[in-house]
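go over whats below:
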Amino acid sequence: MSEIKGEDNKKYKPYENTGIEEGDTIVKANNVQINSTDDLIETVNNSNGKEIKLEYISDEETKECSILPVKQENNEYKLGLWVRDSAAGVGTVTFYEPETRTFGALGHGISDIDTGELIDIASGEFVTTRILNIEKGENGTPGKIQGSIEKQEKIGTINKNTRFGIYGTVNNLYSLNLDNSKEVEVATRDEIKKGKATILCNLDNDKPQEYEIEIEEIYKDNNYNNKSMEIRVTDKELLEKTGGIIQGMSGSPIIQNGKFIGAVTHVLVNNPEEGYGVFADIMIKQSKEVM
């Protein structure tokens, strides 16, 4: 939200006391379906300064409000709302379940950069990524994988954004580049032990590689957040490449005794060698609710 300077050089807050807040999703304006920021801009400018009726979703509840646009010196009308209609990022696909053709990724949700709240997505695409660069993590400064989605292939659709990851269906199985010999069973929580395990990461546009980690703590009764396990990277090659856990590695599957036990979700900013993982059974349950 932002003050608007009118053609009279006065500042206005047309959204004030209307009920609409940061993080809300606009779905209609004057009964016209809104699918993009361009749709909203066009509807506002076509109002010629008359009050606009907005339909929006807030905390999963559909609400309505009316806002009187402000005319600026350039003859454009504004509501004072900064509206974002898309987001993109690089992350790791954790698993693909062949029977249902569903996938799970990230192990944590996609949040709004301003509010920190989970984004309520209308639709999403799951595409291949070309890795361009890796910034190594240091104490106090998390590293990251930088990639490009230009000229990449669409693999599937994202249907669900949860605090335990993003989920959807795979439509283009060929581009997922699966190795069927790598099928693994899902471990129960009781099978997970402190000690050695591995994570699978793709850091060089080739095939995923296995890197050693240590599981330091397990929270078997945790069903409320994605910090099910405390983990520490011990693999010398991975530490040399990344410094530990970096942004973009979220979703990297954790394997122990040949079974899928979870996925990397967080890094400790003050120590990038350490972080958290979420239980595999939580992600599998979320994926089953996609269908």
Remarks:
- The chain has a mean pLDDT of 89.
- Residues 93-288 form a domain with the Thrombin, subunit H fold (CATH 2.40.10.10).
- The first strand starts at residue 4 and ends at 5.
